Amino acid sequence: MRVNVTVNGEQRQADDVWEGESLLFVLRERLGLPGSKNACEQGECGSCTVYLDDVPVCACLVAAGQAQDREVRTVEGLADGERLDPVQEAFVEAGAVQCGFCTPGLVVQAHALLDRVPNPSDPEIREALAGNLCRCTGYEKILDAVRLAAARR
Ligand code: FES
Ligand code: FES
C-alpha cells in the first residue's frame, strides 16, 4: 500500500508498505529519518518516540497505515534549521547524552512535557519520562537537562 504522511512539515509518501509495517520502519528505512531509534520494537523503551498529531507515541507500535494523512514530528523536526531546540541544547549541556540511543525519544518526550507543563516538578518529570529507558546515564543528568530546558524556555 501507499502511505501519505506529513513528516516534519513536509508531505511524504512511501510505496509498497506492508500492512504490518511500523511507522518507525517507514521513518527510518523508507524516508531516511534515522533519528528515532529502534531498540526493543515492542513499546518498552521509548527510544522510538515521535509526535503523531502532537501526541507522543512509540513509533514501533504504530502501524504505518495509521499515520495515513496525519502529521508526524520526529526528533529531526525539533531544531529550527541549524539552531537546536532548547531541549536538545539542554541535553548536550547537562551531559545527559552518553551512547545517545535513548536520547531522541527522551528529547521528544521531554519536549512534549514542557509544552504541557512549562515548569514541571521532579515527580512530574519522572512520571513523564517513565516510559523512556536509558542504560547509560543513571537518569540524574537527564533530569538536570529537563530542569535546565524548563528554566530556559
Ligand atoms: S523501539 Fe519502540 S518502544 Fe522501544
Ligand atoms: S545514553 Fe545510552 S541508553 Fe541512554
Q: Can you give a write-up of this model?
A:
There is one protein chain. The protein is of the alpha+beta class and 153 residues long. It has 2 domains: 3-76, Ubiquitin-like (UB roll); 86-151, [2Fe-2S]-binding domain (DNA polymerase, domain 1). The chain is 33% helix and 14% strand. The chain contains 5 helices and 5 strands. The chain has a 5-stranded mixed β-sheet with strand order 2-1-5-3-4, with helices on both faces. A hairpin with a 2-residue loop joins β3 and β4 (55-58). α2 (86-93) packs across α5 (140-152). It is globular and about 45 Å long. It starts with a strand and ends with a helix. The model has no long low-confidence stretch (mean pLDDT 97). The structure holds FE2/S2 (inorganic) cluster (FES) (2 copies). Residues 97-102, 134-137 line the site of one FE2/S2 (inorganic) cluster. Residues 1-78 form the 2Fe-2S ferredoxin-type domain. GO terms for molecular function: 2 iron, 2 sulfur cluster binding; metal ion binding; oxidoreductase activity. It holds the Pfam family Fer2. InterPro entries: 2Fe-2S-bd, 2Fe-2S-bd_dom_sf, 2Fe-2S_ferredoxin-like_sf, 2Fe-2S_ferredoxin-type, 2Fe2S_fd_BS, Beta-grasp_dom_sf, Diverse_Oxidoreductases. Keywords: 2Fe-2S, Iron, Iron-sulfur, Metal-binding, Oxidoreductase.
Envelope shape: globular
Main β sheet profile? 5 strands, mixed
Heterogens: FE2/S2 (inorganic) cluster
The second-level CATH architecture of the largest domain is: Roll
Sequence stretches where pLDDT stays below 50 over 5 or more residues:
none
- Report the end-to-end length measured between terminal Cα atoms: 41 Å
CATH superfamily of the largest domain: Beta-grasp domain
Q: Quaternary arrangement of the chains shown?
A: single chain
CATH fold name of the largest domain:
Ubiquitin-like (UB roll)
SSE arrangement, N to C: EEHEEEHHHH
Give the helix/strand class.
Answer: alpha+beta
Question: How many helices?
Answer: 5
Q: What top-tier CATH class of the largest domain fits best?
A: Alpha Beta
How would you state the average pLDDT, rounded?
97
**Into which percent range does the helicity of residues fall?**
25-40%
